[in-house]
Amino acid sequence: MDVGFIGLGLMGRPMALNLLKAGHRVQVWSRRRESMGPLLEAGAGDCASAAEVARRAAVTISMVPDAPDVEQVTLGADGVADGAAPGHIHIDMSTIAPAVAQSIAERLGARGVIALDAPVSGGEPGAIAGTLTIMVGGDAAACARVQPLFEAMGKSITRIGEAGAGQVAKACNQIVTGVGVAAVAETLNFAAKSGADGTKVREALLGGFAYSRILENHGQRMLERNFRPGFKAWMHQKDLRIVMGEAHRLGVALPAAAAAAQLFNGMLGCGMGDEDSVAMLKLLERMSGGVGE
């Protein structure tokens, strides 16, 4: 398929590379020119704006940090809407508030562009391996048309419902992962403070009802003190900010998510924003009187 990719950061770059590896014809643009280098070397087309990407492709994908960025690259000057032909499909794979995704879809629709919100889970490792979980909101027929693109980037693709529904699912995902990271970090810090072997504690817990992928994968990284970013703490903090904003809007109580959000706030306050979210262990160690390095 002829596809354009906008936003080539930690996640976007490997996702776009996987589209190329799957045989799709990819056009790229990024606000940071240097980010385009690996894609251009791999054979992607070089575009000067998001509008040019849309002119060259039937489908565009954006993967940018937050809602204002999505609005800029889709509806701003030289954005997707300025270059798209009627019937163009735009897929936003960023994580933004569901209500904002719905608003962007409506405004793009008024300009003849079909919008899908398709946020992902799996972090940088999943983006590199092409094993992301993709949660889609928007028109069912459009979702079916771009299924080959989703399959090049992910292994679990689920259409949740209409516009914004993909972002609702991603918000739910971030509640589970945020609270899960906090729970595992608390567990391993508690075990260490109690004089127990964290490796043995994790091993025992993996054999019972406490098993989770977060305990298996992130717990191991905590034990190894591997805090190299695959999903940066500031990103998780931003996502939980979206969750809590939606909770306030809906009048929904999310006490566990609120507590996790405060811990991520603490990580940013301690200068850990660019470390992986599993560095929450260091924050809890500091809070418990340890060094936390």
What does this protein look like?
- The chain has 293 residues and is of the alpha/beta class.
- The N and C termini lie far apart (47 Å).
- It is elongated.
- Helix 4 runs parallel beside helix 6 and helix 10 crosses helix 13.
- A six-stranded parallel β-sheet has the order 3-2-1-4-5-6, sandwiched between helices. It has a three-stranded mixed β-sheet with strand order 7-8-9.
- It has 15 helices and nine strands.
- The chain has two domains: 160 residues, Rossmann fold (3-Layer(aba) Sandwich), CATH 3.40.50.720; 119 residues, N-(1-d-carboxylethyl)-l-norvaline Dehydrogenase, domain 2 (Orthogonal Bundle), CATH 1.10.1040.
- Helix 1 links the parallel strand 1 and strand 2.
Key features?
293 residues, Rossmann fold, three-stranded mixed β-sheet, 2-hydroxy-3-oxopropionate reductase activity
Summarize the structure.
Pfam families: NAD_binding_11 (PF14833), NAD_binding_2 (PF03446). With 293 residues, this protein is an alpha/beta fold. Helix content is 54%, strand content 14%.
Q: Count the helices. How many? A: 15
Q: Strand order within the widest sheet?
A: 3-2-1-4-5-6
Task: Indicate the overall shape.
Answer: elongated
Counted beta strands: 9
Query: What CATH architecture of the largest domain do you see?
Result: 3-Layer(aba) Sandwich
The mean pLDDT is 96
- SSE topology string: EHEHEHEHHEHEEHEHHEHHHHHH
The poorly predicted ranges are none
> What profile does the largest beta sheet have?
6 strands, parallel
Residues in helices, as a percent range: 40-55%
- What structural class do helix, strand and pairing data support? alpha/beta
Quaternary structure: single chain
EC number: 1.1.1.60
Family: Belongs to the HIBADH-related family.
Domain 6-phosphogluconate dehydrogenase NADP-binding: 2-161
Active site: 170
